[in-house]
Specification:
The chain contains two helices and ten strands. The chain has 212 residues and is mainly β. The chain has helices at 173-178, 182-188; strands at 68-77, 87-91, 117-121, 127-133, 144-150, 156-163, 189-190, 193-194, 203-206, 209-211. The protein binds fe (ii) ion. Fe (ii) ion binds next to β5.
């Protein structure tokens, strides 16, 4: 397993964005992250570089095209307990809307400097973090980031993150099927904030993944 090379950061703590699980009352449960389709572009083979920095591919001098997004959060169970060791995978298209996948028309034009897929195990506090791109739309879909989480106990969640406030969301059939309530939307909509302190021009978001 390739270890994450991008430094962990408690980047949003104190900014008001961090989603701290709170047990409001004994027995309270958190809304779980809705399951969504894996879609047709889960990798059939994995890149040589598998770490949690998708913007920089080992051996490439250039970084990926697009707006950098620092994505972080915690993997929790529905009681708000951290799930250390849960394997978090993400995959998404490049800044041109192209996946690194045999089913992708125009795959040969994809940005070779974008890793497209990454994974990391949640740490002892259940925390995960990725340096990736703000997702872009491609024909038929609103911007989204695919993710899968496999808990140490064998639970599996497959879902997608969206950009809060993106006008195309409401026309996207996958989004509409998942975003049935405000509690659902809270689990799948990333609220993006400028993060110039982290990296010039970058955005950041914190969103927890809750497995039932
Ligand atoms: Fe997709």
């Amino acid at each position: 397993m390739t270890q994450p090379t991008f430094p962990r950061r408690s980047l949003l703590l104190g900014s008001g964005l961090a989603l701290i699980p709170v047990q409001r009352a004994f027995g309270a449960t958190l809304a779980t992250t809705p399951q969504q389709t894996e879609g047709p572009f889960y990798p059939v083979s994995f890149p040589a570089d598998l770490d949690n920095d998708l913007v920089q591919v080992r051996g490439h001098a250039a970084r990926a095209m697009g707006t950098v997004l620092h994505l972080e959060g915690r993997v929790l169970d529905s009681s708000g307990r951290a799930m250390p060791g849960a394997m978090v995978e993400i995959w998404q298209c490049d800044a041109q809307g192209l996946y690194d996948h045999p089913r992708q028309p125009g795959r040969e034009r994809r940005d070779q400097a974008f890793q497209g897929y990454g994974r990391m195990p949640a740490d002892a506090d259940g925390r995960y973090s990725f340096r990736t791109l703000k997702p872009v739309a491609y024909p038929g879909r609103t911007p989204h980031i695919h993710f899968k989480v496999a808990s140490a106990a064998g639970g599996l969640l497959t879902s997608q993150f969206y950009v809060a406030g993106e006008p195309q969301n409401e026309r996207d059939f996958v989004y509409r099927a998942a975003a049935r309530s405000p509690r659902d939307r809270e689990r799948i909509e990333m609220r993006l904030q400028p993060a110039p302190g982290l990296e010039a021009g970058a955005l950041a978001t914190s969103i927890d993944i809750v497995i039932g």
